[in-house]
Every structure is written in structure tokens, then in C-alpha cells.
């Protein structure tokens, strides 16, 4: 099969697609990946093409200025380029199936033009309506059976701000610009059923595969990092991924101070700039990197403080490590509340209200949940999300 994987977003949106693409390539399929320019991910060994958009740069611009102005002047044109480029890539590659992130809104049109199936990917529960809980990113607490289902309409309506780009693509492809667009043949929910039980009212067309974990290994660690994570003193992993904004220095300093009070060393992954420790807070018990391989570092930690993105939430839980979640936006409050409700994490902390006292308290409290997290991790170990997803894709041919 010829498979086109296309995605937009930060590391959590891109890395799962790369992992599935590698699984498909190893299985003998022809694979191409269309992705953003900079998502802190490694596409080595894959046929990877750029969508002409750099989300890291755009994120910095939003944090430095008016969000509305940056959206109009920077984000809107960049998204238009990416959506148009997706059409170019698909027409050039002529795949048998397209596997797409829901942000890539022009995929239904080009799939219709090529008369091929496409599959949408649900990395967090936002696409398939259920009575059991609201769409991640819309609400945290249940709004009742009817209210919960309605929240998924809100998510779907978000694409309306790029409706003109979809219309332009359809005109360019010679397709009708009115009427219902082609529906996906399947929805792949790259979510661990051990972490989040699939709702009983999800249809058979939504396939819960397990998350699409990667194969980053300890051999990629530099000497200082390998030595630091191997030391015997208890370690806290801290990383907020692509999150930015607010006082990144005060935030990092409060976390370091609280971790020290809790008797923990600190491995800080600064990501796109959400954490910036001041020089005065550094010491032998703190190591700072832009990013680290989760599978090599997390198993050595006794607790992880993170933003609650779906990818990081799965990685931390799979490593058997309890969490303290500091949610920023989107689906992160959903995962923060879900982990705390299942007693896999301490109480979520507000990103603007971090103090040495509350950081110490929650880092200590979270460690009481280690045995519960380890039970979930054992269940997750039996899942093979990329293999399950690939079997679904090959069944469409």
C-alpha cells in the first residue's frame, strides 16, 4: 500500500504519526509523511516532506504579541499554505489511503478527488461524540448525556475559521463547494484503553488502538544526561512540551525549590520555552535540556510534573510514574482531571500559581499513587497501538 500520513501541530501531534509511519514502512508499505518544519521530532529514515509551517516560531510570536493580530497576520496565512500544500503532496504521491490529523482540513477534499479512503486520527477524545464525558478541551466535568454530546459539535465547528481554504481547495480540484464532504472511513483513536476506557456508545468505525509509542532509546542520551538519570537519588522529571507564555522563570524556579524541599533532583525539559530556570537556582541536583527521550528518562523518575498533553500523559503513565499536571490549554485540563480522578496523579496545579509550597505538597502526594500507576503501566505494556492501527489501514485496501 501507498500511505500518506499528514499532521499539523507540536511534538505531541507529530511524533505519533512518525511512529505509525515507521511501523508501516517496516511492514513493507510505501510511506510518505507530510509534517510541520519544527516539532522537536526526528523523521530520520522516513520519506518526509514539509507543509511549510513552523509551529514553534508561531508559538513564540503569539506569546510575544496580540494573539488576534498574530493569528491574522501569521497563523492564518501559514495554515493556508499548509492546507494547500497537503493537496499538492497528496496529488503528487497518489496514495491508496490518507491518514490525517483533524487539523489538516483539506484531506477530505483531496481524498474525494483521488477516490480513496481517508482515516482521521483522534489523539485525544475530541472527535467521536459520547454521552459519557465532554470533548476534551471544552469542559472538564460531565454536562450530562445530552450536554456531553453537544460539546463535540463545538470542536467540529472550530474548522469554520479555515472554511475558505477548504472551499479554495475544492474549487481547485474541480469539486462541488457545497454539500457534505466525504466522511472518514475510520477514526483511529490513538488512546490507551487501559488509561481511558472506550465509551460504550462509540461506533465500530472508531477503533481504539492504544497510543502510538515510539522507540527512542537510552543510547541517544549524552554522557551528562545518562549519568544524571542513573544516579541513585530520587528524580523528578519536569517538562511542559510546546507550552509557552507567562513567567517561565518564576515557574521553573518555584518547581525547583519545591522539588528540593521534597528531596528530589530535577530533570527539566524546557521545550518551547515554558520553563526557564534562573542561573541562581541551578546546581548539581538540576539538569536542563530542551528535550529528552521519554522512554529513556521517565522510567528512572519517581514523579513527573508535566502539562498534561495526551502524548506526555501516555508516556509518563506507561513508565509507571505518577504525575503532577500543570495544564495550560486544550485537552490538558481533561487529562489532569482524569488522572487525578483515577488517583494516578496529584491535584492539578495552576500554571500561574506555582509556589515552592504547593509544588512540594503535590510532588509528595503524587508518589503515594505509584502502585496504582504501575498497575496501569502493566496493562499498557500489552498494547501495540501502531500494529492495531496498521491492521485497520490494510483492511481498507
Walk me through this protein's architecture.
- The protein has 14 helices and twelve strands.
- It is globular, with a radius of gyration of 21 Å.
- Helix 1 crosses helix 14 (385-394), helix 2 packs antiparallel against helix 3 (67-93) and helix 3 (67-93) packs parallel to helix 4.
- The longest helix has 27 residues, at 67-93.
- It folds into two domains: 2-214 and 382-394, 3-Layer(aba) Sandwich (Rossmann fold); 218-381, Glycogen Phosphorylase B (Rossmann fold).
- With 397 residues, it is α/β, with parallel strands linked by helices.
- The protein has helices at residues 11-26, 55-64, 67-93, 107-114, 144-157, 163-172, 223-230, 248-261, 294-297, 310-318, 332-341, 356-366, 370-381, 385-394, and strands at 2-6, 30-35, 48-50, 97-100, 118-122, 186-189, 206-208, 235-239, 265-269, 286-289, 303-306, 323-325.
- The model has no long low-confidence stretch (mean pLDDT 90).
- Helix content is 41%, strand content 13%.
Q: What profile does the largest beta sheet have?
A: 7 strands, parallel
What's the overall average pLDDT, rounded?
Answer: 90
According to DSSP, the number of beta strands is 12
The helix fraction, in percent, is 40-55%
CATH-defined superfamily of the largest domain: Glycogen Phosphorylase B
Shape annotation: globular
Count, helices: 14
Strand order of the largest sheet: 3-2-1-4-5-6-7
SSE order in H/E notation? EHEEHHEHEHHEEHEHEEHEHEHHHH
What CATH calls the topology of the largest domain is: Rossmann fold
Low-confidence spans: none
Please indicate the count of domains. Answer: 2
Global Rg: 21 Å
Amino acid at each position: 500500500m501507498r500511505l500518506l500520513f499528514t499532521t499539523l501541530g507540536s511534538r505531541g501531534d507529530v511524533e505519533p504519526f512518525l511512529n505509525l509511519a515507521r511501523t508501516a514502512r517496516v511492514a513493507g508499505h510505501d510511506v510518505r509523511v507530510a509534517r510541520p518544519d519544527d516539532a522537536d521530532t526526528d523523521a530520520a529514515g522516513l520519506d518526509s516532506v514539509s507543509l511549510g509551517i513552523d509551529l514553534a516560531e508561531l508559538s513564540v510570536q503569539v506569546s510575544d504579541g496580540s494573539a488576534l493580530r498574530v493569528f491574522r497576520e501569521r497563523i492564518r496565512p501559514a495554515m493556508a499554505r499548509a492546507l494547500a500544500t497537503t493537496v499538492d503532496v497528496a496529488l503528487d504521491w497518489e496514495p491508496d489511503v490518507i491518514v490525517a490529523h483533524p487539523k489538516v482540513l483539506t484531506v477530505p477534499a483531496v481524498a474525494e478527488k483521488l477516490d480513496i479512503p481517508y482515516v482521521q486520527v483522534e489523539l485525544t477524545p475530541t472527535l467521536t461524540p459520547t454521552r459519557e464525558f465532554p470533548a476534551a478541551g471544552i469542559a472538564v466535568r460531565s454536562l450530562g448525556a445530552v450536554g456531553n454530546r453537544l460539546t463535540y459539535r463545538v470542536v467540529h465547528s472550530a474548522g469554520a475559521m479555515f472554511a475558505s481554504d477548504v472551499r479554495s481547495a475544492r474549487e481547485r480540484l474541480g469539486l462541488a463547494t457545497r454539500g457534505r464532504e466525504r466522511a472518514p472511513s475510520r477514526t483511529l483513536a490513538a488512546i490507551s484503553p487501559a488509561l481511558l476506557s472506550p465509551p460504550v456508545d462509540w461506533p465500530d468505525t472508531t477503533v481504539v488502538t492504544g497510543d502510538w509509542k515510539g522507540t527512542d532509546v537510552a543510547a541517544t542520551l549524552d554522557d551528562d544526561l545518562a549519568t544524571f538519570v542513573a544516579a541513585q537519588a530520587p528524580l523528578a522529571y519536569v517538562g511542559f512540551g510546546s507550552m509557552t507564555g507567562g513567567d517561565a522563570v518564576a515557574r521553573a524556579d518555584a518547581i525547583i525549590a519545591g522539588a528540593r524541599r521534597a528531596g528530589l533532583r530535577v530533570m527539566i525539559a524546557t521545550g518551547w520555552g515554558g520553563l526557564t530556570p534562573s542561573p541562581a537556582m541551578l546546581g548539581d541536583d538540576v539538569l536542563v535540556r530542551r528535550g529528552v527521550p521519554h522512554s529513556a528518562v521517565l522510567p528512572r523518575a519517581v514523579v513527573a510534573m508535566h502539562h498534561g498533553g495526551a502524548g506526555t500523559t501516555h508516556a509518563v503513565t506507561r513508565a509507571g510514574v505518577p504525575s503532577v499536571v500543570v495544564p495550560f490549554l486544550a485537552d490538558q485540563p481533561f487529562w489532569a482531571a482524569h488522572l487525578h480522578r483515577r488517583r494516578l496523579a496529584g491535584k492539578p496545579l495552576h500554571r500561574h500559581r506555582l509556589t515552592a509550597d504547593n509544588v512540594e505538597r503535590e510532588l509528595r502526594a503524587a508518589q503515594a499513587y505509584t502502585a496504582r500507576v504501575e498497575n496501569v503501566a502493566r496493562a499498557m505494556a500489552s498494547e501495540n497501538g501502531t500494529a492495531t492501527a496498521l491492521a485497520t489501514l490494510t483492511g481498507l485496501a
